[in-house]
Amino acid sequence: MLGESFNIAEGDRSVSAETAVRHSEEHRRIVHVDLDAFYASVEQRDNPELRGRPVAVGGSRERGVVAAASYEARRFGVHSAMPSVTARRKCPELIFVKPRFDVYCEVSRQIREIFHEYTPLVEPLSLDEAYLDVTENLKGIQYATQVAREVRTRIWKETQLTASAGISFQKFLAKMASDQNKPNGQFVITPEMAPAFLESLPIGKFHGIGPATARKMNELGIFTGADLKAQTLEFLQERFGKAGTHYYWIVRAVDNRPVRPDRIRKSVGAENTFSQDLVSLEEMRAALEPIIEKVWRHCEQTGALGRTVTLKVKFSDFQQITRSRTLTTYVESQGEVEHTTYDLLQAVFPLEKSVRLLGVSLSALNTDQEPESLQLALRL
């Protein structure tokens, strides 16, 4: 079966360090499961009138932002993080739906229960995706591709939602593989396939290389994985810092990170993009109230407490700043969050520009039970 001949024989012990690291991890079976258009698919599932139609989850007002788009909407070029006014221009028939995070969280918990029937080694990345180490799975299934197929079938039967999966011998390639046959498909990258797959990949398709970094690489003559692989470690470190080390190894298919079921959640936050820019301190204090309330409500529901309060401010020209304060003890009331946030806001005044977005987050949390940095989007 494709993708299951991961084991390698003992060979020449004078191999390079790079080859040795790769060989040491090639026995692993890692599955990356990614729900297809999760928020939008939940809305289409729960409202038959939305099925087959272009749907955007998020705010429909002029300053709203798309949190998720159905595949019908994506055909028009609509995608997450796109301003709602742009999405509407691309797709005049687009239907906007307000997000229901309580529903999404409940569905996510249901899906994680399925994961844990196959392996205790589940590392959630967000509500709609996770890594599973199925090298020694609880069902005794020989092939990782079969585990992925069963998991996807169970998700469909129990939630009526589709999921895509990537299977490989390491996390980076598993995540890359899950994008190959979306929606409702799966793809395998074996150790034998990995070098050619990575070398042929356009640089902008590498997970973790965003548009700005891709542009910088293009300016340096790096357009494909093969171009990236041709660069020395020193060259990449000089131009990209610590990230350069990461780029050097991932294009060589070296990623020995384990699947961490105890991955620590680092922050919880909420933000809002306003229909009209804010100018005065009073306007901004009032606008921060529902944002802080949403963050604190989540803390109460999960028992999470944090010591660092961070204020995020995005101006009308899209410049962004953050201001943080770390307290000596955990914040134990909504009033404490408000007081600290308002102090941080006061400190940035007077402002020369109007404000289009405000956000608040709590970090240095006391809990290790949730996926890292789950952002509670507040785009009403």
In a nutshell, what does this entry contain?
With 380 residues, the protein is α+β, with helices and mostly antiparallel strands. It is built from 14 helices and 13 strands. Helices cover 38% and strands 19% of the residues.
Describe the structure.
With 380 residues, this protein is an alpha+beta fold. The chain has 14 helices and 13 strands. Among the domains are: 38-101, MutS, DNA mismatch repair protein, domain I, CATH 3.40.1170; 197-250, Orthogonal Bundle (DNA polymerase, domain 1), CATH 1.10.150; 267-375, 2-Layer Sandwich (Dna Ligase, domain 1). A hairpin with a 2-residue loop joins strand 5 (122-126) and strand 6. Helix 11 (233-240) packs across helix 12 (242-250). It is globular, with a radius of gyration of 23 Å.
